[in-house]
Amino acid sequence: MRSALAAGALALSLGACQQAVAAENIVEAPSAQRTAKESGLKTAIFAGGCFWGVEAVFSHTKGVTSAVSGYHGGTERQADYDLVSSGVTDHVEAVRVTYDPTVIRYDQLLRIFFSVVADPTLKNRQGPDRGAQYDAKLIPTSAEQLAVAKAYLSQIKASGKWDRPIVTDVVRAQAFYPAETYHQDFAAKNPRHGYIVRWDAPKVAALKRLFPGVYSASFRRN
After folding, report:
1. Minimal CA–CA distance to 35: which of 91, 108, 132, 136?
2. CB 98 within 8 A of CB 43
3. Where do the domains of the chain lie, and which CATH numbers do they carry?
4. How far apart are the C-alpha atoms of 211 and 109, rounded to whole Å?
5. In order along the chain (222 residues), what is the average pLDDT of each group of 10 residues?
6. Whose CA is closest to 114, among 28, 14, 52, 22?
7. Residues catalogued as catalytic
8. Residue 7 burial (CB < 10 Å; 0-12/13-18/19+)?
9. What's the CA gap between 152 and 159, in Å, rounded?
10. What is the pLDDT of residue 18?
11. 3-state secondary structure of 96
């Protein structure tokens, strides 16, 4: 293991996911009118800004068996934190979520995502983070997920829950590259980190408040 790895972990506050600010307003998204019909463990990918918070919320969601932070949209050579953070790659920070649809359905994950994780009215940014690498995207991995995602986006656009237009896209799934080890389970490993305390912990608290039936007090580690 490179000696720079530990130093990189300590210096994260100097890179992306950097400016700790108060979380944006939480919006209780509507229940999906089109529910997902799935069986067996399924995987979907969500891009919603800094992957620490996306991973933290889904790691506290019942039925999620794995939440892996990583990069989506670019090449394997580009899948490097420093490169992605610089904004010169085609990657977005993303989280690959594996879930049991008998416990939590894809449409329910979408509702959680838009309620407490990502603001669908923001383009190429989320919260304090700016750049195309922080764009919010739905990345379904099956035809069923694609149909549900498109239907749900149409539904929330017509819901009037947000004051600005919905700009989140549905994009075709490409190769997903797990992020460096120190990014995995970051919120659980670093609960006192300034960004986690002021930005991501409120998202997890909102999950517990809005969706107590699917909130898990324990953190699903990878």
Report:
1. 108
2. yes
3. 37-210 (3.30.1060.10)
4. 11
5. 33 45 74 98 98 98 98 98 97 98 98 98 94 98 98 97 96 98 98 95 97 97 89
6. 28
7. 50
8. exposed
9. 10
10. 52
11. strand
The three-state secondary structure class of 188 is helix
Apex 132 CA angle, 146 and 10, nearest 5: 110
**Residue corresponding to tokens 């416990």:** 103
Three-state DSSP at 80 gives coil
Closest Cα partner for 46 from 37, 34, 38, 57?
57
Phi, psi of 116 (to 5 degrees): -125, -10
Q: Find where tokens 């379904």 sit.
A: 140
The token pair at 124 is 């190429």
Residue 140 parent element (H or E): none
* 34-78 pLDDT tens trace: 999 999 999 999 999 999 999 999 999 999 999 999 999 999 999
